[in-house]
Amino acid sequence: MLFRKNLFEMAINLAKSHHLDSDGLSEIFRQYGDHLYNKGNHDGAIQQYIRTIGKLEPSYVIRKFLDAQRIHNLTAYLQTLHLQSLANADHTTLLLNCYTKLKDSSKLEEFIKTSESEVRFDVETAIKVLRQAGYYSHAVYLAEKHAHHEWYLKIQLEDIKNYQEALRYIGKLPFDQAESNMKRYGKILMHHVPNETTELLKILCTDYQPSGDNEGPGMLEGKKANSEEFIPVFANNSRELKAFLEHMTEVQADSPQGVYDTLLELRLQNWAHEQDEQVKEKLHNEALTLLKSGRFKTVFDKALVLCQMHNFKDGVLYLYEQGKLFQQIMHYHMQNEQYKKVIEVCELYGDQEVCLWEQALGYFARKEEDCKEYIAAVLKHIENKNLMPPLLVVQTLAHNSTATLSVIKDYLVNKLQKQSRQIEQDEQRIQKYREETTRIRQEIEELKASPKIFQKTKCSICTSALELPSVHFLCGHSFHQHCFESYSESDSECPTCMPENRKVMDMIRAQEQKRDLHDQFQHQLARIQTDSVVEMLRELYPDLRFEIVAMSTTGDKILDTALSKIGEKSLFTKELENALERNEVDLVVHSLKDLPTSLPPGFTIGAVCKRENPLDAVVFHPRNCGKTLSLLPEKSVIGTSSLRRAAQLKKKFPQLEFRDIRGNLNTRLKKLDEKEDFSAIILAAAGLKRMGWENRIGQLLSPEDCLYAVGQGALAVEVRAKDQEILNMVSALQDADTVLCCIAERAFMKRLEGGCSVPVAVNSMLKDGQLYLTGAVYSLDGSDSLRETMQTSVNYPPQNEDGPNDDVQHVGITAKNVPGQAQEAAENLGVELASLLLSKGAKHILSVARQLNDAR
User: Fold this and answer.
1) Which of 667, 645, 671 minimizes the C-alpha distance to 656?
2) How would you class 315 by CB atoms within 10 Å of its CB: exposed for 0-12, middle for 13-18, buried for 19 or more?
């Protein structure tokens, strides 16, 4: 009844007098508030609604006053809601928006600047609202007070632009937070306050302690950030970067290698671009001092590339000397025509590398100007050390038009005199040996006709008087029987003569065995390869007769020299091509990887047969059967003569050691099995299979572990380029997939100007009309490398007879039965992939690898 007559005050008093519960009172306050709100008395209504807090849902009240735009009434309600700790994040957002719209800064400050124990709102929400409304000072106050470091720094750096204050704040943070925020905001701070930022980074990377909290219990004493990780912060501030790096190397000698590498590059850049001679000299000395600090032993190749890129002569020469690359030092002086330096290098390092004197003579011999003084100095040393045959000296000097006979007169006279004396001595020895031989023959004849009388009175071992029983030999030595039995290894050999006799016999047997095994193996492998091709031809052309002619090449005869040191693949093909040219043979079978990417005029590869497995294989010592490279003990020695394999596997298996192993396939397997020098050796899987030794393969190396050589596993048939009859015949052997893969690989190699003397590796695959080619280059130790993959479509239809000439060579290959457009696409793929690697620095990697290999 009282409600109907709007007597709410009376109703409230009556309810209180009758001790009505809080829920009942709250309902009266709500109805009273609704009554006042409907009458337009918003101030009175909000007071009644405030009395319902804790019972009535706040959203009921908030919706009314949002609709009426009565912000100051809503503010009063929300303030009370917060005071009673009944507000949520949405209420805080709404209240702060009310303050900002009313521009009531005093109320806003009063709200946020409460003590820690009186905070009745979500701080992060308040910071976001204040930031959005532009009240940055209030937002950073809250962020700092309540340790919201990320928000504090965001507002300072992105809104207020107070970089000094942000840097000061980071310097107060604990180590982990200071480190992460410097990584996040370091670049922007470096751009605006470079000096102060650099100083903070120096402290952070040495012995960081939060500023203003030196006695704090949470301080992490002695904690240091990784200085290498902050180098990107200085991307556009080379001066500050130099100061930072120099500081780190001074106070922290064990700084990461990246710090020293970057400092060297920076000093070289500054030196290269400096115009002032005095400053340039100072920068030169700084760069050289850093190189000599001993910090670049593990990254020798990288330091050398940096010095070469900036044409830092003294640095290059120093690194050559440290790496014992004496030939490179001399070649450097030769390129700069520093004759005296060439002689100095020979004098300094000639005892360690005698070929320096030979190279120096050849260099001066090629000079057209008068080099008599230097030639004479070189000749004197060559004569004293007997480094070159006189005929070779004369042939070398014949290239110099200014070198007259007077230049080598003294040399030749001295050599002739020495040789004359040697001839006399040799003639005397010959005469002596002849007389000795005659005497021995006479003794043999005497022994046939009459007994031998032994008249030795002393034992040849103990030198005591001979007593019976004794043992006598025709060589003239006699022994006590007990002495002979104690020292002799054989009843039929004289113990005194045996060591020398055995040495001679071992040398003779070794030479004969070496020659026989090598000839036998080369003939066997070549015959197997040739037989397989001829067998295919016989099946295709049963009416033709095929005769196999066995031949040897210069490369086949060089048994103990690594292919990377021989350098010229033509050593394996020259004699065979001569036979082709003279029409002595009509076709020659090669391993494709032995053929250069450019053939001599008049020759072509008429067919590339279906490829065997191109992967590399691991053959283990019998004691390691069942293992893989990753399971071998640390420091196990792996044999390979391939720079390509060694470079990749050194990087993949750093715990293993890789050493050269010489000889043909048979010789290497024998060295592995009969000695303890190697735990395993790496060979081509295709060669092992062709020889019937596939069971020796203990592990196949996937392309992820080791990319293979260009053309590996494929057989090529070389013919005369103009001999259409033979070309048409062998084209039937062509395997289209192998042809396209090998064209891409050979084009890649040709564009890189690679070969056996540098580590270049590939992997190719044809799938669904797409040719995929992976190519890579490596430094000799595998520490520096570039590897990329590209693909192209080779899905072209066969050409008709009126199409383009299908006899066009692609990197030496004439593939009559493969679409010309597909061949062009494959060749372009190899060229483009090589060009990509060259643009990324492959030329430097290969150049350094070639220099290091030449100097080995």
Assistant:
1) 645
2) buried
- Other Cβ atoms less than 10 A from the Cβ of 258: the count is 15
Of residues 146 and 558, the one with the higher pLDDT is 146
Compute the mean pLDDT over every residue in the chain, rounded to the nearest whole number: 82
Neighbours of 138 (CB within 10 A): 24
What Cα–Cα distance (Å) separates residue 691 from each residue in 449, 522, 548, 612, 743? 56, 11, 19, 13, 26
Neighbours of 464 (CB within 10 A): 10
Sheet containing strand 657-659, strands side by side: 657-659, 637-639, 680-684, 616-620, 699-701
Tell me the H-state helices in 70-122. 71-83, 89-102, 105-112
Residues 700, 685 contacting (CB under 8 angstroms): yes
| Range of weakest confidence among 515-524, 587-596, 809-818 | 515-524
pLDDT tens per residue across span 676-713: 889 999 999 998 998 888 889 999 999 999 999 999 99
Residues 6+ apart with CB under 8 A from 621: 672, 673, 676, 678, 679, 680
Q: 300-309 and 257-273 helices cross at what angle (nearest 10)?
A: 10
Return the higher-pLDDT residue of 173 and 354. 173
**Tens of pLDDT along 569-584?**
444 567 778 888 888 8
- Nearest of 712, 821, 721 to residue 760 by alpha carbon: 712
Determine phi and psi for 584, rounding to 5 degrees.
Answer: -75, -30
The DSSP code for 126 is H
Asked if 165 and 141 count as a contact pair (C-beta separation under 8 A), the reply is: no
| 649 burial via Cβ count (<10 Å: 0-12, 13-18, 19+) | buried
Q: DSSP label at 469? A: S
Q: Mark whether 594 is an active-site residue.
A: yes
Distances (CA, A) of 602 to 121, 554, 721, 814, 823: 91, 21, 5, 12, 21
Indicate the residue type of 514: K
pLDDT computed for residue 1 by the predictor: 47
Task: Give the 3-state secondary structure of residue 131.
Answer: helix
What are the two backbone dihedrals, phi and then psi, of residue 705, each rounded to the nearest 5 degrees? -85, -40
Among the listed residues 34, 122, 586, 594, the single catalytic one is 594
Alpha-carbon 259 to chain mean position: 19
Smallest Cα–Cα separation from 822: which of 752, 738, 751? 738
Rounded distance between C-alpha atoms, residue 145 and residue 159, angstroms: 19
Report the C-alpha gap between 706 and 690 in whole angstroms. 21
Does residue 469 have a cis peptide bond before it, meaning omega lies within 30 degrees of 0? yes
Provide the b/e sequence for 704-738 (b: ≥16 CB within 10 Å). Answer: ebbbbbbbbbbbbbbbbbebeebbebbbebbbbbb
Q: Contact 564/643 with Cβ under 8 angstroms?
A: yes
* C-alpha span between 664 and 275 (Å, rounded): 57
User: Residue 584 and residue 424: Cα distance in Å, rounded?
Assistant: 48
> What is the distance between the alpha carbons of residues 524 and 539, in angstroms, rounded to a whole number?
22
**Of 82, 98, 93, 165, the residue nearest 128 (C-alpha):** 93
pLDDT digits (tens, 9 = 90+) for 432-448: 878 888 887 887 787 77
- Element spanning 765, H or E: strand 760-767
DSSP state of 710: T
Which position has the token pair 């020798």? Answer: 300
